Amino acid sequence: MAELTVVDQENNAAGSVTLAPELYEVEVRPEILNFVVRAYRAARRSGTHATLNRAKMKGGGSKPWRQKGTGRARSGSNISPIWTGGAVTFGPQPRSYAFKVNKKIRRLALRMAVSSRLAAQRLVVVKDITLPEAKTRHFAKVQKALGLERALLVAPAEARDLLLSARNLSGLTVLAPERLNAYEVLRHRSLVLLESVLSPLALRLSAPGSLAGVDVEGE
Hints:
Layout (H helix, E strand, L loop, with lengths): L1 E6 L5 E7 L1 H4 L5 H15 L58 H17 L3 E4 L9 H11 L4 E4 L5 H7 L5 E4 L6 H6 L2 E5 L3 H8 L14
Parallel strand pairs: 1-3, 3-6, 4-5, 4-6
Antiparallel strand pairs: 1-2
Helix pairs in contact: 4-5
């Protein structure tokens, strides 16, 4: 059972917190993390690529020349794929790259991602962050005091001042607990949790049943 020191926004010790091992000390399985990250990135692909096939090409309504007597090869259309500037055969068309991932697998991957940050001593719990106003310069001082570089800050959804103050700072992302996912955790070097999100995050991480023997296969 892990016990972490809770710090304030000036990086001074402000207490301690005990984290449940079944949520924060899960064995990391790279194949599951790889599967979930690929699914997340695939779902973000726009899939709007397209080529002009014969149905979408203009022209081709009349035969370029008569069938016989010209000495040239017969041809029925000037948009034929074998012509320069003609249609494309079997080219890419708009499609969705998303593929389904079981909800239990996604939750397990999130527990693994959070556990990896704890194991690497890159998980920080902050008592609270209060700002005089929603200004980037105020949060920049907090970022410097806590040493937040390539960090993911998990804060309550109602903490709008934090979101507005941090959105222009490079290397820092602010997310609500309900929007947290394994991809975002792994994409950042460190994970910073406000003490107020530990309870909703525990509900997000916990799930009935066990997946200790799950084998994951991708596409």
